[in-house]
Amino acid sequence: MDTHSFGEVPPEDQEASSDDQLLPQLVAHLREHRGTLRDDWASRIHDSHLLEAMTPQEMVTETTSVYDNYVGVLETGSVEALQHYARDLSERIIPRGVETHEVVGIVLLLRDVLARSLFEKYQSDFGLLNRVLNAYEPAANRIANTVAVSFVDERERVIRQQQDAIRELSTPVLPVRERLLILPIIGVLDGERAKQLTEQLLRGIRTHRAKVVVIDITGAPDVDETVANHLVQTVDASRLMGASVIITGLSPTIAQTLVTIGVDLSKMNTIGDLQGGLEEAERLLGYTVTRKEVMDGS
Amino acid sequence: MTSGPALVSILRQGDVLVASVHTALDDSQMLRFQHDLVRQIGEHRARGVIIDVAALDVIDSFASRTLQSIADISRLRGAATVIVGIQPDVAFAMVRLGMGIGELPTALDLEEGMVHLARVRDRARR
Question: How many domains does chain A fold into?
Answer without folding.
Answer: 2
